[in-house]
Every structure is written in structure tokens, then in C-alpha cells.
Amino acid sequence: MHCKKDEQLQRIINQVKSLTTKGKLADYIPALANENKEHLCASIYYLDKTCVSAGDVEHSFTLQSISKVLSLALVLMDHGEEYVFEHVGMEPTGDPFNSIVKLETNNPSKPLNPMINAGALAVTNMIKGSDKDEQFTRLLNFIKELADSDSITYDTIVAQSEYNTAWLNRSLCYFMKEHDIIKGSVDHLIEVYTKQCSIKMHSIELAKTASVFANNGLHPSTNKRVIPEKIAQLCKTFMVTCGMYNASGEFAIKVGVPAKSGVSGGILAVVPELCGIGIFGPALDDKGNSIAGIGLLERLSANYKLSIF
Amino acid sequence: MHCKKDEQLQRIINQVKSLTTKGKLADYIPALANENKEHLCASIYYLDKTCVSAGDVEHSFTLQSISKVLSLALVLMDHGEEYVFEHVGMEPTGDPFNSIVKLETNNPSKPLNPMINAGALAVTNMIKGSDKDEQFTRLLNFIKELADSDSITYDTIVAQSEYNTAWLNRSLCYFMKEHDIIKGSVDHLIEVYTKQCSIKMHSIELAKTASVFANNGLHPSTNKRVIPEKIAQLCKTFMVTCGMYNASGEFAIKVGVPAKSGVSGGILAVVPELCGIGIFGPALDDKGNSIAGIGLLERLSANYKLSIF
Amino acid sequence: MHCKKDEQLQRIINQVKSLTTKGKLADYIPALANENKEHLCASIYYLDKTCVSAGDVEHSFTLQSISKVLSLALVLMDHGEEYVFEHVGMEPTGDPFNSIVKLETNNPSKPLNPMINAGALAVTNMIKGSDKDEQFTRLLNFIKELADSDSITYDTIVAQSEYNTAWLNRSLCYFMKEHDIIKGSVDHLIEVYTKQCSIKMHSIELAKTASVFANNGLHPSTNKRVIPEKIAQLCKTFMVTCGMYNASGEFAIKVGVPAKSGVSGGILAVVPELCGIGIFGPALDDKGNSIAGIGLLERLSANYKLSIF
Amino acid sequence: MHCKKDEQLQRIINQVKSLTTKGKLADYIPALANENKEHLCASIYYLDKTCVSAGDVEHSFTLQSISKVLSLALVLMDHGEEYVFEHVGMEPTGDPFNSIVKLETNNPSKPLNPMINAGALAVTNMIKGSDKDEQFTRLLNFIKELADSDSITYDTIVAQSEYNTAWLNRSLCYFMKEHDIIKGSVDHLIEVYTKQCSIKMHSIELAKTASVFANNGLHPSTNKRVIPEKIAQLCKTFMVTCGMYNASGEFAIKVGVPAKSGVSGGILAVVPELCGIGIFGPALDDKGNSIAGIGLLERLSANYKLSIF
Q1: Is D263 known to be catalytic?
Q2: Hey, CA dihedral for B248, B98, B29, B68, is it positive or negative?
Q3: How many whole angstroms separate alpha carbon D309 and alpha carbon D257?
Q4: I need a surface site. Which of A9, A124, A273, B102 has the fewest CB within 10 A?
Q5: What percent of chain B has pLDDT over 90?
Q6: Cβ-based contacts of B175 with chain D (< 8 Å)
């Protein structure tokens, strides 16, 4: 699709690009470790359907944790708020995304929110479908609609690689299975979850996906209502309180827009009523967020007064 | 001051008042335990200086944790962001407000955010002043300006009673003193902090205080810049991510406006660009928030689409 | 085998039997939930090969956690101390036997000791054998030697039932697999472990097993060296510091002999240089120990000054 | 007093002395930081009143945590087991000696055992006396009796220095005061506790003190019953399960005798029915135990088969 190169955006990217030298590639997934650490690109999709971009914006990357907010939207549409929040909490946490401690110390043993791994696994477990394949297909189709692209698929090599080494996620799942938060086969759940994390798109598609939330669930491209307004609002709220791992509080202070990051280096950011932003920069900070991606959003927020606060 | 009784607001109060039967008065402070559990009142102060209210809105109550966001504003004005956030973090937490665990398990041993007790104590410790009395006087004067009322003072009996039993807060302080987060005399800090928590106002004054944040730091009554815009924004962000104890996430989902509660049953809520809200309802839910106050804000947010998300 | 009924022992049993009314059967394993809650029996096997008993001492029960000390002995014989203690620690813990928290908060992520579930799973994982069947067969043969009985086997129904519901143990295993403490298939490990826990014997056989430790590894019945002296000593030490779940400290104070309990209600107790004791009483206290079994050992220790301290 | 230099003991000391190079002096107390890191000496006081020693055994050092087991003995004599164990638990813990986490996460909020700081503070708080001075005088007199020396006193400089910086211990105290485990003035308690930790003796006196436990409470020198047999036994049990900080489990495995260490580098060790051992070696391992002192006890235990297991 067409997305015009923008000089001003490129200038800001040039200003923050040196941050990549302080970051690290995620090394536990070979496909991620092979990315170019200096890569940084961004696309902005406005609600009036114009699009600006800078960098190699058609480079595809896997969604990883960005997918958590999309599966949450689908599951809320599948079951409604009440059911979903019986299985997963709404509270941010100061713990790392992959921590298991709170599952033991909290009573009842419910994941604190849908953006940490435990919560996201519980969410994926709730996707409607007669079997794991239907669950995944429904999610993939939903994401195609959000990205307004039929060609979206998942990276089978990344999915398989993550499936083969998802020991910690299996540990979280079995702990939740003990406490009846997770139902059915853990192996099947891990399969759907690792495929979900391996869904690929490029930054323009990510910006379009973000724009749906910016437009409260009505797709600005297709004019279709893809997500009910209430659920779009709810997802934006979670992005603010827990979207950037355990740096969400700092991000809310310094940037102040709903956003969700993934360890691939992608960031989906939402400027309500204005635009969706898709960023890719695989060099990560110590919390697992794209280090230059956050720098870029700080500049954009300061320059254009984007904070919702 | 004048604040017109409003029938519509009274109707909503009537609708949620029965929630008070499910709540409990804070019993560990005698002055709080003596409140009328069924009390519920609210004032709304609009940026155009009109004011509507319902219930016994001139009943005064102590600020308790509501004061945390006011001392934070003062300290940010005293020292700037960088210095302050060397001593206290920006991250929400799933732990209770009085928890000490994270001070030991996190490294470095810094309170997670300024809205939990540990963080609020570290903030109060940073108020400028040659001694504890000057520290407190400066804070009190700042709060008088916010509430636009010279008559504001603190409840000496509540302050003394809290000072005499603040064992857990002393424990938090000494732990932080061990790690050089807190400087000087812990007893002096506890004195300033318990006085701060015991500052009294009624719901109209609280609504006016809230309106300053709604107006980005410019006082709508006096037209004076009381808080720099950036700091007002920062305080609103903390109110969203951590303002309602460990129910902040749920409150963001269900209400979606910056707010800060206290165990006295007060809630300061901010509707950006529109109004400040002051609520008093001393019956608390199990997280320490005014149970009917939250119900009232949920109704107001749903009826008038107040969520910022 | 022959084990003489003893009136004095029966009298003590009668004195403590009423404790069973305060205990509860383990309800998460059907076979355990079907036991007679009032059951209490004991056998004492002296190093001079005499044996006294009271109660229905030929009633068989599964070893459950008692097996942990036997697999530890085997694994120490298989690999030596150094290798084994690279994978599992030596420190008692105040946490429950099935806790996962310390695996995350401790660094490196090593189970604290071989008597908690995480540690016992790591131990079973180290049993030598070309596959899971050889691992289990080697353990079963070792236990036959200890109990001096060829007829010992495992309860296939209990094993299958535990295998089907061992979610928490799977969670512990996957967490340890993430940290390279556990090698190979978790399902195979869980199979060997649940079979190990389901090995059955009656209290006379348990007393004989205990007597091997009392005699420093030389079997008093067969006069064969079944366990090297150093390893027998080491196992007794672990029994004292961590043998009775997170009531080990209290048991050391009140009884003061090496012992290991299981949630089936069995207790293996060792009086060094004197005798082995086997007890069965399925009513458990809140820590998971046979409530009347502990009462019985307290009486025996007080009456005959058995404490090693 | 007379204690014969022993060549054999000196040889073993020479063998392990190089361990001191791997250790570190406690640096948070100036008086401890000024010790000679290579110092290592030991005295053994046999129940037949003979004494052997090696090294500079008349060098005095402060007891620090060694005092915890002596105050425990006194408090058990003051109040009996039942009362004492309502205020402090009996369970070993895998947490460091100064950890506060378990006080919050355990319910009820009772220190796990009397050998961690929280528990020891609760114990000192129970020493009988009309005021802090009488409490301390009673403890000092009791320790004089144990060491069989009237000249024993405390180091006022160390006591003052510890009092001035005991932030973490104050934090523990106030946490326990919140939960009614500690009564009265925290400052007074900290004064008695820091004086207690600063009581000085040399290794011969320490060996004599240990010998009282080896002789089950009957002083081998004076033939007076200083501690009831039951309480002496109880103290030995705690030394085994929790005497060497969170290296107690490993020490039980590798040495296997009741012992209590302090960060001054002292170790009191008890060989039941045989002798008391007093060691001083201020270079500490990372758990806070005398690194060469432990090495020495490992050698002694192996050479003379001292383990009680």
C-alpha cells in the first residue's frame, strides 16, 4: 500500500537512531537475533487515510507481545467483559512480564492483567473455536481485518522455534491449570500462542492496526466497525496501564499515549482521534521495549503534544 | 463558598448510596471510625467557575492519601523531575499500598511509585524547608492555594493519633533510610507526613483543588498558575496509573479519569478541560477506596462519557 | 514377616489416636481420600532384628514424599555429592513444599533442597538409566532392597491419577527446564516421579527401610551395605533440616530424630544406632504431616529420650 | 585462664588459613572492619575441664549473632517454651538473616525463627526486666555465668556505632510492633540488642560457653546447672537448623554439629557430650560466616567424626 516518505519524520528518526547502540537484540529467538540492530522505521496512519513513513517500512517483523492486545479485543468480543475478567485481572504490576511469583502469592491465583504472559496465555485460551486451528484462524482473520491486509500470515519458523523452547510459558500454563484458570491441553494452547506471537506484519500494517483503536473501533480504511467502541476503549486503557511491560508507568509519564510493544522491537501506538503509529526497531532496552522506538515516541509526543494526560 | 445544589447529581447519589452498606469505615484511626457510614456527597467545580453539588458538601474530612498527589506536585516544583525520580519510581504495582516486600526484592531498593506509602514518604522527605515545620507550612500553603481557601488547616487529633501508631510507615522509612532513599530524622518525617494526611477540607474545596489539574495547573478561580503545565500533566498520569491503590487498573477501565482516593473516603477526580470533582463517602471497599464514591464516578463517567480513553 | 504386637506401643497409640479427629485426609488423590481417617499404626525395627508393632501394621500405603529421601540416596550413589548439589541446594526453607516463588527469586534458580517438590523432581531427573523405565526400575529395586522385600511394587491407579493431575509439578519442572536444572522430557520425568510416589509398602517394611539409615547404611536384616555411610548420614541430615515439610523446625524441637513424612500419612523415622520406625496415620495436619503420627513420635521421644540433640 | 597450646590443632589451622584470602571483613561496623583479616584461632574446652587451643586465643571479639542463642536460652528460662513460641517461630528459612519479606507474606506475621534478626529482636524484647538496663544486666550476668568469667563486658563503641546505624533492625522492629509481636519502645529494644551484640569475649570463653550446651546445661567448670536440660537441647536444635544463617543446611551436611556464628567472625560450636569449641576468624564468606572457621570445623568433623547425624 502507499505511504508517503516524510522528511520531518525521517529527521526525528535520525535524531534518535543512535539509541540503538545502547540496546540489544532479543537473543533467545534465533529469528530475532538475526535482525539488523540499527534498524529503525516508523509509519503513521491518520484517520483521514493519509499515511506518512520513514525508513525501511515494508520490512516485516513478528508481533510477539503486540498480539496480546489484539487477542484481548477478540476475546472480549467473543465472551464479554464479565466472563473475561473472571479469568484475568485488570491491575498493572511492577513485576516483569514473565514472572510467576504473583500467581502463587495472590489469592485467588488469577493473572494480574492480560498484558503479562500469564494473562495473555489465559486470554488466548479463551479464543472461541472448536479446536486450536479454528482458534488461531479466527485470530488471524481478525488481525487481517485490523491490518486491512489479506496477505498477513505467521512465521512458521519463529512459531516452531518458540514452541520448542517455551518452557517458562508452559510453567505459567500448568500453574494456571492447577488453579482452573486455563482449560484443555497446554500443548495446544502453547501452539496457538506461539503462532499468535509469530504473526508478521510491516510497520504500515501495524500503523493501520493502531488506527482502528485511534478511531474507537471503526476502521478508518474500510469504514467497517471492527471492534465495538467500548472494547476499543478498554484495550487502550490496558495499553496505558500495562502496555510497555514494567516500564508502562514511565512511558505514560514520558509519552502518554496508549501503546503496546513486543520483543521483536515493534511498537503499536495510538493517538486517539488522530492516528495510529507503527514502529520497528529491534534493539531493546532492559525491559524488552524497542529502545529507539521509545525515544522516537518521546520526541513525537513532545513535539506534537500527543499525551492524553 | 457558593455551590448550587443539583437535582440530577442528587439523583445519581441516591442511586448508588446503597453501596455504602457493603463498605466499611476505616477502623484504625478513631476519627475516621466515627464518621457516618452512609454519608455520600459530591461537588463538581467547572472550569467556567460554576459549581454544582449534592449532599452535605460542607462536611470536612482529612485528605489522607489524597495528599500524596499534592505533595508530589510541590516536590516536583521544588526539585524538578530528574531529582525526584532518582528517589521514587514511576511504575504501578499490583501490591497493596502499604507493602514493604518490593523494597527488599527490587534492586535498587526504590519505592515503585509516589502513590504507595513508601513512595509518598520519600516524596514528603523531599519537601524543601529548613526544618519539619517549614516543610509542613510550605505544603499547607500550597494546598490552601489549590483549594482557594485560607482557612484550611490540619486535624491535630487525627495527626497525633496517626503519629502515635504509624508503626508500618516507620518500618518503611527505616528500610528506606538503610538504603539512603530517606534522609534525616524518621520521627520528623513521620510528623510532617501524618500532619499532611490530616489536612482537612470539604468536598467543594476538594473539587476546586481537582479543577486546577483539570485546567493544567492554571487555577480556574484565581487565574494564577499554581502548578506548571508539565507537572500537572505528570500528576494526572500518576493518578491514572496508581491513584486508586491496587484497584487503579480496574478504575481506569471502568471510570477512566485521573483520580486519587484516601482512606478517609475522599476522592479527588479530574475531568481534563472540564471540571474537578470532590467526593466524600467514608464507607470503603476492600482496597481502601470509597465504595459509593467509585460507584458514583462510574455512573458519571458512563452517563457523560468522561473517560479519557 | 514377623513383628510382635507390643502392648506398650499400643497404649501410646491409644493415647494419641484422638488427634486423628483434628486432621484431614489428603483429598486431592482419590486413593488417599478413601483411607480410614482414624487409622494409626506403628512398627519399630531394632538393629538387633527384633520388631515390635501395634495396630493394623500390614496395611499398605503409598510412600509419596517419603520416597524423596530414598531417591536422593540412590542419586547420590549414582553421581556423588558434588554433581547432585550442583542441581539442588542444601538449605531448609520456610516455604510450603510445592512453592515455586523461590525458583524465581533465588539466583541461580536452583531448588533450595531435595525434600521440596522442585528439588525432589530435580533429584528423580538425575536417576541413572537409559530411559524412564530403567530409571524407575532401578529406584524400585533399590527400595526393595531397603525394605528387604521382593514383593514391593507401585500402585498403578494412584500413579495414573497423580500423573493426570500433576499440574503444579509440571509447572515446577518447566520452570526448572527453562533454567537447565531439568533435562529431557518433562512428561517422562513426571511419569517416573508419580510412580515413585506411588510405591507402596506397609509399616513394617517402612520401619525396616528406616533401620538402614539408623545403621548408617548397613542393612540390619541382610547385613549388606545398601548405602555408603557418608550418604546415609547425609540423608539423615536432610531429614532433620527439611524432612517434615515446613514443620521440620518444630519437629526437630519436639521430637528430634531424622524423619520423612508423606501426604499418604506415612512417616519414616530413624533413631540412630537403635531402630527404624514406620508409622501410618492418614489424617494430616495443615502442613501435610500425619497428625497422630507426629503425636506418637513426640510421646516416644519424650518417654525414651530419643532426641539426637 | 589456662588453655594449653595444641600442635595438632595448630596444624589444622595452618591447613585452612589460606581460606581467609577468599573472605571479607564485615565492613559496615568500623570496629569489625579494623580486624586482621588473616586472624584464625580456636579453643576447645572438654567436659573434663581440659582445654586446648591454637592461635591468638585471647583476642577478644564481639558476639554479634552468637548472642542470639544465649538470649534465647535466657528468655526460655524467663517465660517457658509456650509463651516464647507464641512470639517467634521454629522454622528454618532460606531467606537471608535480615530479610523482612516473610514478615509480610506469612500469616500470622511472626518471625520464622529466633536466629534471624527479626526473631532475635523479638526474643530480646522478651528478656525480663523492669527497664532496658535491667534487661541488659540480666543478659550480661547470664553470659558471664556461661563464659565463667566476671570480666565480660560489652564494647561501648561498637554498641553505639551499631545503635546509630541500625536502620534495618528498626524497620524490622516497627513492622513487628505493627503486628503486636514487639512491645514497648523500639529505641530501648535496639539499645539492648546492640549492646547484646557487642558483648565481647575471647575464644576460650566462647569455648566454655559452648561447653555448657555440650553438657546439657550443667556447667562443666562450675558444676552449676546454668540452663535446664530441655532448654539446652532446644538451643542446640536451633543451632543445627538455623545457626549458620542461610548456610545452615550446608553446614549440617558438611559439619553436623550445633553451632552459631556471628558477623564478627566468631563461631560457637558444640560437640554433644564431648566439648565446646570457640573459633575466631573475621574473614567472612558471602553468607556472613567465618570462612576459615567453617573450613576448620569441616576438618575437625571429618578427622574426628564429630557429626551428630
Answers
A1: yes
A2: negative
A3: 8
A4: A273
A5: 89
A6: 100, 167-168, 171
Q: Chain D contacts of B100, Cβ < 8 Å? A: 100-101, 103-104, 171, 175
Measured at the alpha carbon of residue B147, what is the angle toward residues B144 and B148, in degrees to the nearest 5?
Answer: 75
**pLDDT (tens digit per residue) in C131-152:** 999 999 999 999 999 999 999 9
Residues of chain D in contact with residue C90, where contact means CB-CB under 8 angstroms, are: 249-250, 252-253
Q: With an 8 Å Cβ cutoff, are A308 and B307 in contact?
A: no
pTM assigned to the model: 0.94
Angle between helices B67-79 and B229-242 (to 10 degrees): 140
Q: Which class is domain D65-197?
A: mainly alpha
Q: For residue range B282-294, what is the model confidence (pLDDT) as tens digits?
A: 999 999 999 999 9
Q: Which residues of A are catalytic?
A: 65, 68, 193, 245, 263
State the complex-level ipTM.
0.94
Residue whose C-alpha cell reads 482529612 in the numeric block: B62
pLDDT at C109 over 70: yes
The CATH class, in words, for B4-62+201-304 is alpha beta
Give the largest Cα separation in chain A, rounded: 54
Task: Name which of B89, B240, B249 is nearest A90 (Cβ-Cβ).
Answer: B249
Pairing, β D266-271 against β D41-46: unpaired
Q: What is the dihedral of CA C96, C100, C104, C110, to 10 degrees?
A: 80
Q: Where in chain B is the domain with CATH 1.10.1500.10?
A: 65-197
CB contact under 8 A, D248 and C91: yes
Does the domain spanning C4-64+200-304 belong to CATH 3.40.640.10? no
CATH 1.10.1500.10 region(s) of chain C? 67-197
**B169 appears as a binding residue in the annotation:** yes
Average pLDDT (B120-149) is 98
Residue C94 — very low, low, confident or very high, per pLDDT cuts 50/70/90? confident
CB-based burial of residue A18 (10 Å sphere; 0-12 exposed, 13-18 middle, 19+ buried)?
exposed
Question: Could you tell me which of A304, A286, A281 has the C-alpha nearest to residue A16?
Answer: A281
- Assess whether C174 carries a catalytic annotation: no
